[in-house]
């Protein structure tokens, strides 16, 4: 059974940075695309960033483009999200997700593409 566990959330000041991690267990994620999504209070879950299993392809939501960097370490079965210049509107629960087996260059943006989800980690950006 695949488990995804996020960490690194917390309270951050606007303009600051954060690094989220997602540790996967149960099977190797080295042939799965992985992504980050977030859900703010009263809003639907939205795409943040995705990375192909090879790490060669990445996709970002316009809202984080230029401020976020998604990366992965397949040897550690871990996904990361580095976010800089944080804004109040980045406040949300951040979820890690993974697909089943996919092609090497695929980094999907849709929720329905992902089969495994973590429980989420809260990120609160304060002024």
Describe the structure using short key phrases.
mainly beta; seven-stranded mixed β-sheet
Q: Can you walk me through this structure?
A:
The protein has 127 residues and is an all-beta fold. Helix content is 0%, strand content 50%. It contains no helices and 11 strands. The protein has strands spanning 3-7, 10-13, 18-25, 32-39, 46-51, 58-60, 68-73, 78-83, 92-101, 116-117, 121-126. Strands 2, 4, 5, 6, 9, 10 and 11 form a 7-stranded mixed β-sheet that branches. A 4-stranded antiparallel β-sheet has the order 1-3-8-7, with no helix packed on it. The protein is globular. The model has no long low-confidence stretch (mean pLDDT 95).
* Sequence of secondary-structure elements: EEEEEEEEEEE
Q: How many β-strands, per DSSP?
A: 11
Nearest-angstrom radius of gyration? 13 Å
Strand content: over 45%
Summed over residues and divided by their number, the pLDDT gives a mean of: 95
Shape: globular
Task: Note the gap between the termini.
Answer: 40 Å
Estimated structural class: mainly beta
Helix content: under 10%
Number of helices: 0
Largest sheet: 7 strands, mixed
Give the uncertain stretches in residue-range form.
none
